[in-house]
């Protein structure tokens, strides 16, 4: 009977985890893969989670970060025919589509500049910023995803922020409030 | 508000993720497939994995193949990829064809590799020492059966031509034949029923065949006569679809041809 209860208890815990993390993981993957592939990638990642369930960190936020790391590795390994990358680039929504009816022209142009600068960022820097801004992870959790130390992540994030500001400041077309904000802060 | 914070706020408005794209039906289906695909195996040391075979039928069904299959062995499992539909069944053939020596060896290695982590690696030694009993092709699909001592066997059905994230595969591994003595005209199924892959459902029968068994044919309602491969005391056949879902308690009927040319009907059960 012990084996039965163990098996059912594990399945029950996995179901809860799946329900809890699925939306976040789906969004994580949407930002890093073709949208049409997100369902498949999430399913593959959770299959790995199920098979490695004994390794799941106990603390919920760390568990979520660990699962993000599994999906990230899956996406990195899926780059068939390409040199294996060490970081995953992160997509932004098209600035034009992100506009809301009540947005000011400054906000709209700020998005355009930011999107343009983002594209010039390295994958490493995109990844660090996205984990902080979009996934809302702290340094310890983000370091779990990237399999680096928290100190290394803080350094990477700091450099990513500086790189983004530099790009906004020096991109010739950047004339938006976002660019001016950076210029005024650094002048 | 700091510059960084203001940029973060602006970045948040450019988030490419869209929560409305989450398909709950697909999510629920994937959860089911994940739980079917890999049995809940406590870590070695937490419980004796060999006792898993005492789990009740309802749990064992999850551990093996969907539908009417029941596990008769420890840790049998399917490993379906979850990468969507697959047109490769169009190449499937009711009569299997052989493989070149190079293909056989590669398929055997691939099967060993795919099963080595099952149950926390509990079969890794068996797999390393197992010999190739069956290798066949049905169109783009490869079937391999590895066998070893103490009734060990591993089955791998694989298709790898069209998947984005890896091979499409299903199979099983375990010790279904431990202690089983087989007569020369007997068949003993170790896998029977319906399995699910990204490509869809398949029906399969595989197991041990006595020395006098020369041919095994399953008369399928959907695919006609499906011939098994018989080699080194093993038989294996499979077909697309769920013909064998909820097969009767009396078993799945097959026609067997013996060494003297006579035929008989046998029923496969687990």
Describe this structure in words.
The complex is a heterodimer of chains A (187) and B (270). Chain A has 187 residues and is an all-alpha fold. Chain A contains nine helices and no strands. In chain A, helix 3 (60-77) runs parallel beside helix 7 (139-146). The radius of gyration of chain A is 19 Å and the shape is globular. Chain B has one domain. Helix content of chain B is 19%, strand content 31%. The longest helix of chain B has 15 residues, at 101-115. The relative contact order of chain B is 0.14. At the A-B interface, helix 1, helix 2, helix 5, helix 6 and helix 8 of A face helix 1 and helix 2 of B.
The low-pLDDT segments of chain B are 40-86, 162-166
Assign the CATH topology of the largest domain in chain A. Arc Repressor Mutant, subunit A
Shape of chain B: elongated
What is the makeup of the main sheet of chain B? Answer: 4 strands, antiparallel
Beta strand count of chain B: 12
- The low-confidence runs of chain A, each spanning 5 or more residues with pLDDT under 50, are 80-84
* Structure class of chain B: alpha+beta
Summed over residues and divided by their number, the pLDDT of chain B gives a mean of: 75
Q: Specify the overall morphology of chain A.
A: globular
A few lines on this structure:
The complex is a heterodimer of chains A (about 190) and B (about 270). Chain A has helices at about 1-30, 40-50, 60-75, 95-100, 105-120, 125-135, 140-145, 150-170, 175-185.
Write the layout of secondary structure elements.
The complex is a heterodimer of chains A (187) and B (270).
Chain A: H1 2-30, H2 38-51, H3 60-77, H4 95-98, H5 105-120, H6 123-133, H7 139-146, H8 150-170, H9 177-186
Helix pairs in contact in A: 1-2, 1-3, 2-3, 3-7, 6-8, 7-8, 8-9
Chain B: H1 3-12, H2 24-37, H3 57-63, H4 101-115, H5 124-129, E1 131-138, E2 141-147, E3 153-159, E4 168-174, E5 187-197, E6 200-209, E7 213-220, E8 224-227, E9 229-231, E10 234-240, E11 252-258, E12 263-268
Antiparallel strand pairs in B: 1-2, 2-3, 3-4, 5-6, 6-10, 7-8, 7-11, 9-10, 11-12
């Amino acid at each position: 009977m012990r084996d039965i209860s163990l098996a059912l208890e594990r399945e029950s815990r996995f179901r809860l985890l799946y329900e809890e993390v699925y939306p976040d993981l789906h969004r994580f993957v949407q930002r890093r893969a073709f949208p049409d592939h997100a369902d498949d990638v999430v399913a593959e990642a959770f299959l790995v989670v199920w098979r490695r369930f004994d390794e799941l960190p106990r603390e919920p936020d760390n568990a979520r970060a660990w699962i993000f790391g599994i999906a990230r590795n899956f996406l990195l390994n899926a780059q068939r025919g390409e040199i294996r990358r060490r970081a995953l680039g992160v997509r932004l929504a098209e600035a034009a589509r992100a506009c809301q009816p009540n947005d000011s022209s400054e906000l709209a142009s700020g998005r355009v500049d930011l999107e343009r600068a983002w594209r010039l960022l390295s994958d490493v820097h995109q990844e660090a910023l996205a984990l902080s801004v979009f996934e809302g992870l702290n340094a310890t959790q983000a370091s779990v995803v990237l399999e680096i130390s928290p100190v290394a992540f803080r350094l990477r994030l700091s450099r990513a922020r500086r790189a983004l500001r530099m790009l906004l400041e020096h991109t010739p077309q950047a004339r938006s409030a976002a660019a001016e904000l950076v210029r005024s802060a650094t002048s | 508000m700091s510059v960084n914070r203001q940029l973060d706020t602006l970045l948040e408005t450019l988030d490419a993720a869209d929560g409305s794209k989450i398909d709950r039906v697909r999510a629920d289906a994937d959860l089911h497939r994940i739980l079917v695909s890999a049995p809940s195996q406590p870590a070695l040391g937490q419980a004796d994995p060999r006792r898993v075979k005492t789990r009740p039928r309802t749990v064992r069904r999850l551990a093996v193949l969907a539908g009417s299959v029941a596990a008769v062995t420890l840790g049998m499992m399917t490993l379906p990829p979850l990468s969507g539909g697959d047109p490769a069944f169009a190449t499937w053939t009711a009569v299997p064809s052989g493989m070149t020596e190079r293909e056989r060896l590669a398929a055997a290695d691939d099967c060993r590799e795919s099963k080595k982590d099952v149950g926390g690696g509990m079969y890794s030694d068996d797999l390393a020492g197992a010999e190739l009993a069956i290798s066949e092709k049905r169109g783009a699909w490869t079937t391999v059966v590895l066998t070893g001592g103490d009734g060990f066997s591993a089955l791998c059905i694989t298709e790898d031509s069209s998947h984005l994230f890896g091979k499409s595969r299903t199979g099983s591994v375990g010790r279904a034949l431990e202690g089983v003595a087989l007569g020369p005209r007997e068949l003993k199924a170790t896998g029977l029923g319906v399995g699910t892959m990204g490509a869809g459902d398949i029906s399969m029968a595989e197991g041990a065949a006595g020395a006098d068994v020369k041919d095994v044919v399953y008369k399928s309602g959907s695919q006609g006569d499906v011939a098994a491969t018989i080699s080194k005391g093993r038989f294996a056949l499979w077909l697309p679809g769920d013909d064998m879902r909820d097969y009767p308690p009396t078993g799945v009927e097959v026609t067997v041809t013996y060494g003297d040319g006579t035929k008989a009907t046998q029923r496969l059960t687990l």
